[in-house]
Specification:
Distance between the termini: 82 Å
Helix content: 40-55%
Number of strands: 10
Number of domains: 2
Structural class: alpha/beta
Length: about 325
């Protein structure tokens, strides 16, 4: 019987693309032993007599719920009773997911950081915070955008988290960075995503978001449900902005808060040595990412644009707001 650590190593190596034969040779064990543990997706005591259990036949369901709730067995137990009509003890659920817990931990350790090339991706998110403004504790919403390659941040405070704030935040980030990335990654916010099927990964975006993305020329992407780690760079960026930009500060007015955030982005966030890249984001941005972004070309904000359908008159003009205008190309 192999130890839990050895089984965790098997799972990590399989995640890296190793075959059963190669894993067996690396760990000095029989190929059938490797196959048994990989099929179980975790450590198991094969000497324990097999008896019928209440949760037999629910392995796939337990695996999906356990991953969804990030290892919280008690929430899985509640789902069991509510959806399957099975009232079991917490200990029963914990025994059933024991191998899954080790597999989840091994997956976390074996996760490779997903790096994007310059200009590929911008990750965006909102985070709630409270700050003293004009002598009052005010709830505000921090929009944080992080370029995937350089890790350069953009932060703006809003009084709400409605769709207009998402759009205004993205446009302000595009202006600060001087260009538009190929894709923008965000969570499954209701103002942006109408439906995201966890099984098929089919996403239905809000129609106005589609129009906004077409206007600026980027591809919208939504994180997989229950996988916020997909945009981990921006998740950390939100925490960094809360703890570093706002903590311990008070402001006389909203304008003073905005001026402080502009200063903080320029003098602090851009210039600190990033823990992953080992260099200041502004240097990495200027050297490799700025030129990879799509130029703005003087494009006005999306909110100033209107899509109208007009019939061309016999004199090659169209009517806009009661004014007759020559039809382009007419």
């Amino acid at each position: 019987m192999r130890t839990p650590d050895e089984v965790a190593a098997m799972l990590r190596l399989r995640a890296l693309g190793w075959g059963e034969r190669r894993i067996a040779a690396e760990l000095g064990c029989n190929r059938r032993t490797v196959r048994r543990y990989l099929a179980a997706e975790g450590w198991l005591n094969y000497r324990t007599p097999r008896r019928a259990k209440k949760l037999d036949g629910l392995q796939a369901w337990l695996r999906e719920r356990f991953r969804r709730h990030r290892g919280n067995a008690d929430v899985v137990r509640q789902d069991l009773e509510r959806e399957k009509g099975l009232a079991v003890s917490l200990r029963t659920v914990e025994r059933a997911v024991e191998g899954l817990r080790q597999g989840l931990a091994a997956e976390t350790r074996a996760t490779l950081r997903f790096e994007t090339p310059p200009g590929r991706q911008l990750q965006i998110d909102f985070g709630e915070a409270r700050s003293s403004i004009g002598g009052e504790r005010v709830k505000l919403y921090l929009f944080v955008a992080t370029l995937g390659y350089s890790r350069r941040n953009f932060v703006r405070a809003f009084r709400h988290e409605r769709q207009s704030a998402w759009f205004d935040g993205m446009e302000a980030a595009f202006c600060r960075f001087g260009g538009v990335p190929q894709e923008v990654l965000f969570d499954n916010a209701r103002t942006l995503v109408e439906n995201h099927d966890a099984a098929t990964r089919e996403v239905r975006f809000n129609e106005r978001l589609h129009a906004f993305a077409r206007y600026w020329g980027f591809k919208p992407r939504a994180c997989a449900p229950y996988r916020a780690r997909t945009k981990g760079k921006d998740e950390r960026g939100v925490g960094y902005a809360k703890a570093n930009a706002l903590a311990g500060h008070s402001f006389a007015s909203w304008a003073e808060l905005e001026a402080h955030l502009d200063w903080w982005m320029r003098e602090i966030a851009d210039r600190r040595v990033h823990g992953t890249t080992g260099e200041p984001p502004i240097e990495r941005f200027v050297r490799e990412e700025a030129a990879a972004l799509r130029p703005l070309d003087g494009r006005p904000p999306f909110g100033q644009m209107r899509e109208l359908m007009r019939r061309v008159q016999a004199d090659a003009t169209i009517e806009v707001d009661t004014n007759s205008t020559a039809c382009p190309g007419g």
